[in-house]
Specification:
Helix content: 25-40%
Distance between the termini: 17 Å
Number of helices: 6
Order of helices and strands: HEEEHEHEHEHEEEH
Shape: elongated
Radius of gyration: 18 Å
Length: 151
C-alpha cells in the first residue's frame, strides 16, 4: 500500500486481489515464441502502448527497461487506448485481467480484432482495501475487518 495514502486514510484488511496483468494484442500481430513477458516484448518491431506517468509495477517496469521495446506513450485512459490498438497505432497494451476482459466486452463486435494474452510468468496483482477517512473510529474499521472474508 502506498505510503502517501496512509497519511490521509485508514485502511481495512484486503478485500480483493487483482488478477495478473495481461496484454491486449491485435490479432494480426505475430508474436515471438513463448508466453513469458520478456519473450513477448522482445518480438522485433513490437510497439507497446503505455499510459504516460503510469507504473505497471516493478517487474514489468524492469522488463521494459531491459528489453527496450518501442514504447508509444499516451495520457489517455485504457478505454481510449484500446481504440488506438484497433486503429493500428500500436500492437499491444497492458491491463489488469479484469479490465482487459471488460474492455473487450465494451468493444462489442470489434473485440474480435484483439486477443487477451496471459503471461506465464506474471503473478497476481495488487491487493485492494477499503480506505476510510481518518475520522472513522477504529471500532468501525475493526467491524469492517471482522466482516471481510477475503483470504
Amino acid at each position: 500500500m502506498a505510503h502517501e495514502r496512509i497519511a490521509f486514510a485508514n485502511f481495512t484488511k484486503p478485500i480483493y486481489r487483482d488478477g495478473p496483468v495481461v496484454a491486449l494484442v491485435r490479432r494480426d500481430v505475430v508474436l515471438g515464441p513463448g508466453r513469458k513477458l520478456e519473450q513477448v516484448l522482445a518480438t522485433p518491431g513490437l510497439q507497446v502502448l503505455v499510459r504516460g506517468r503510469y507504473t505497471y509495477g516493478p517487474h514489468i517496469e524492469s522488463v521494459l527497461r531491459r528489453v527496450k521495446p518501442d514504447l508509444v506513450a499516451s495520457p489517455l485512459r485504457n478505454s481510449q487506448l484500446v481504440e488506438r490498438l484497433i486503429d493500428k497505432r500500436a500492437d499491444l497494451m497492458f491491463a489488469s485481467e479484469e479490465e482487459g476482459a471488460h474492455l473487450l466486452r465494451q468493444l462489442g463486435s470489434r473485440a474480435s480484432e484483439l486477443q487477451l494474452l496471459r503471461f506465464s510468468d506474471l503473478l497476481p496483482g495488487t491487493e485492494r482495501y477499503i480506505a476510510c477517512n481518518r475520522n472513522v473510529p477504529d471500532e468501525t474499521i475493526e467491524r469492517l475487518n471482522n466482516a471481510i472474508t477475503f483470504k
